[in-house]
Structures are given as C-alpha cells and as structure tokens.
What does this fold into?
Amino acid sequence: MQTVRTVSFPDRQLLADLSPLPEGLRGVVWDLKADPDGGTLSEIDGVILPYIDASAVMGSLARVPNLKYVQTQSTGYDGVIEAAGPAAGVASASGVHAAATAELAVGLILAKLRGIDQAVRDSQYGLWRPERRQSLADRRVLLVGVGGIGHEIARRLEPFEVTVTRVGSAARTDEYGEVHASADLPALAATHDILVSVLPLNQQTHQLIGEEVLAALPDGALVVNVGRGSVVDTAALTKEVLSGRLQCALDVVDPEPLPQDHPLWSAPNALITPHIGGNASAFQPRILRLLRKQLEALAAGQAPANLVQKGPFA
It folds into this structure.
C-alpha cells in the first residue's frame, strides 16, 4: 500500500530534473519559506529538504499535518528527526557526498602539511620563501569515523604511504581490519600526527574531540574536521592552535559560519574552507540518482534507503 503520494521539492529545477515522477507520485514545489506552489500543505506527505541551509527552514516541517517522509540532501541530519517528529520517516543522502568529501579531506591535509596555504598568502606579496615542510608520507593518521566517508578517506590515503588507525563508536573488527572505540581516543591521539574527524553529530559525539584528546596529540599535529563542527570543541582547539602547538584544517566549524572576528581566521596554523566538502561537481548526478531510487521505492510502497528514522516504514 502506497505510503507517500505528494512530495514537495525545494526548487523547480530539482522537480524538473526528476520528472516525470514514478506513477502514483505527484510533485509540488515548496521552499519551506512561503506557501507551496502547486499544492497545499495538507496534501504534502513527503518533503525533500534543500541542500544549502536546510537547518534554517526545517522548522516549517511542523506545518505539514500529514508528514510521513523527509529526505535530506546531506549526509548529516542534525535536527531533522526532531523537526519531522516521531511519526515521519527520515532518510539521509548517505553515500552521495562520500567521494567529494574524501577528496577535500585529503586536499586539506596536503595543503596544510606542505604549506600550500602559506604559499598562496605569500604569492599575494610576491614573496619566495622556500621551507622544508612535512610530508604526508610516513604520517600516522587517526581516522575518527568509519562510515561511508571515512571508508573513502581511508581508500584515498592508501597510496600516500601512511599508517591509518580507525576509530568508531565501539571496538570491533570489520572486513577492513580493526576499529578502535572512541573511548580510546586520548590514548590513541598521543601516537598520531594527524587526526581526521568525519563523525556525525549526536549526543555521544558532541565535543568528543575536546581538551583531553587535543592535549594528547603530539606537538605539531594536524586536526582535520570534515564531519560536523560541534564534534570538536572549538574553544579548546583554538587555544591549542593559537599557542602554535597544533595545526588545523577545517571544513566545518562551531559556530558555523565562524564569526568574522574569530581568531582562527588569522591564525597561521589554521586553514578553513566554508563547508564545501560535498558541494562539488560529483553532487548533482549522485543526488539525482539517489532521489530517483527513493521516489521509485515510495511509488512502489517500499521503504526508501538510508532511513535514520523509520516512521511508517517500520
């Protein structure tokens, strides 16, 4: 029996890209700001959230009286379950951003270790300042997060002749080897040169990488965050970076965006990109491929993939 009949799309282009919809589904355009175009809120039972700034509008989900399904276009789903309510199924875009985010993680590591960010600043003044920098080769990488993005980062690090230690929520062995528990982070941090966080945000991961873990890292270690900003304690990291003891390369921060007067902006040991991990050319074809599969499942009365809350699909 079909669960979802009318799905809202955050913009007209996305609806056009996915049209014609599978038989039995109807699409309307709703940006979660104004009223829907082509339907009413009472008719909508499925919502596709916008990719950019979804958090700013997801409170509008409470206005949908018959909400059964919410689809994010991001891997993270911070606040979506709460905004959708317990009766709705919530699905993430897990897998869509893995390749692009992994690319950025490796790019941030190389840029910071090899001083590319400093060379860009120097080039603005015509400065030629050769300096011996750290190689990625022979580094010990502590990869915190073993989901799809973490797996893709590990794959891309393999040719760089590094040692990768993986950390998950609990200790276990999977098809790729050993996974350490997050409780072991302080002890593990002491023997690694680079810490990469790709963790989602939840009660267990909020500020997991805090003062104790950061203090355990060796002098000169690099902290990379391409997961969620709040997983890292910004105040504790800022203190370590401003002291010159640690380096950081961050695609996500807390708060986000970082205030213009925040000292990390001007810290020579910090490299910051504006949350662009998944926002690359690989996004469009991959999100369309996922959404087509999700819509086909809904039309067939089947559970969509990537459910983080089952709702009516239990």
Observations:
- The chain has nine helices and 14 strands.
